């Protein structure tokens, strides 16, 4: 399927701003009527008859679409009861830049953070026996629906994490869950906005994260990010010990600030939280860009965090 944009020759205002109507301008093209009619008419007629005698949900869709889905699944059209269909960019991710320093890919936000955290978690278990002697539970939590508000059964603004932590409590006293939360630490890993070489004025002069220069700690006085001085200090100590670079980002005062699941979880549970992310360009576009070196750096930071948080945390005194 394809959603072609309108040629600028037909809309001269397109040079001023890329605007479209979500209802009328984003319908994807599947096929032309002429091609569909020539694409196995008897087969389509057969499937149409099958659909007519089947569920109402199948009657909502064109037979040629159902044929394609059934063929890919290796089933009959009549076996399809219902489905959820999402369109996405099918171009493969690539390494780019004259020095291979960039990753060009869809959905880097936030699959990159998910990948780095899981890889760091796995590496920390393979290289160390730290978990055997740690009284803490190590966890990576991956949530759905972040970009539409996280308010779902499996989103960050649900009871999923709360319920999971409670199920981990074995025995204990009446306040064991509350004590666990108070002793816990959340690294909320999303992505960050790298300074754009063509739009440098969009960043605060002293907070312009660069790609391939390390993970970004995100700070906001209005708590759009959940980072505090205490939580950032712990990660800085761990990163410094392993000579891993960190950057800091504060949005300009005259610019709105995005947010993450960090403040949601921090507010719901009362857990110490830091917001971090790899710097990237073109966030939420169909072709996002980030630094290739930052993947390895992030994995190393997550690995070090899992292995050493308990020890570092025990030495901190917050006044």
From TrEMBL:
InterPro entries, per the entry: Peptidase_M18
EC main group: hydrolase
Catalyses which reaction(s): Release of an N-terminal aspartate or glutamate from a peptide, with a preference for aspartate
Database matches in Pfam families: Peptidase_M18 (PF02127)
Sorted UniProt keywords: Aminopeptidase, Hydrolase, Metal-binding, Metalloprotease, Protease, Zinc
A GO BP entry: proteolysis
Protein name: aspartyl aminopeptidase
Lineage: Eukaryota, Fungi, Fungi incertae sedis, Zoopagomycota, Kickxellomycotina
Similarity comment: family membership: Belongs to the peptidase M18 family.
Recorded GO MF terms: aminopeptidase activity; metallopeptidase activity; zinc ion binding
Native source organism of the sequence: Furculomyces boomerangus
Keyword Hydrolase: yes
Assigned GO CC terms: fungal-type vacuole
Enzyme Commission code: 3.4.11.21
Keyword Repressor: no
PANTHER family tied to this protein: ASPARTYL AMINOPEPTIDASE (PTHR28570)
């Amino acid at each position: 399927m394809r959603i072609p944009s309108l040629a600028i020759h037909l809309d001269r205002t397109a040079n001023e701003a890329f605007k479209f109507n979500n209802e009328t301008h984003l319908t994807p093209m599947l096929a032309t009527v002429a091609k569909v009619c020539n694409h196995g008419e008897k087969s389509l007629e057969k499937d149409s008859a099958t659909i007519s005698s089947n569920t109402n949900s199948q009657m909502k869709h064109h037979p040629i679409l159902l044929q394609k889905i059934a063929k890919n699944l290796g089933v009959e059209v009549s076996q399809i009861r219902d489905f959820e269909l999402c369109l996405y960019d099918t171009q493969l991710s690539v390494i780019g830049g004259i020095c291979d320093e960039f990753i060009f890919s869809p959905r880097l936000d936030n699959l990159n953070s998910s990948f780095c955290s899981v890889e760091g978690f796995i590496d920390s278990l393979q290289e160390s026996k730290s978990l055997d002697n740690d009284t803490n539970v190590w966890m990576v939590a991956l949530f759905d629906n972040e970009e539409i508000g996280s308010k779902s059964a499996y989103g960050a603004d649900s009871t999923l994490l709360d319920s999971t932590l409670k199920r981990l409590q074995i025995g204990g006293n009446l306040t064991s869950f509350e004590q666990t939360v108070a002793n816990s630490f959340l690294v909320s890993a999303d992505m960050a906005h790298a300074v754009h070489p063509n739009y440098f004025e969009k960043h605060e002069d002293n907070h312009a994260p660069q790609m391939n220069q390390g993970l970004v700690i995100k700070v906001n006085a209005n708590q759009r990010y959940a980072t505090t001085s205490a939580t950032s200090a712990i990660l800085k100590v761990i990163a410094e010990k392993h000579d891993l670079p960190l950057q800091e980002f504060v949005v300009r005062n005259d610019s709105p600030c995005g947010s993450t699941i960090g403040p949601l979880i921090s507010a719901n549970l009362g857990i110490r939280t830091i917001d971090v992310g790899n710097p990237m360009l073109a966030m939420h576009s169909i072709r996002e860009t980030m630094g290739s070196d930052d993947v390895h750096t992030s994995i190393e930071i997550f690995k070090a965090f899992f292995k050493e948080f308990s020890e570092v945390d025990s030495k901190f005194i917050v006044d």
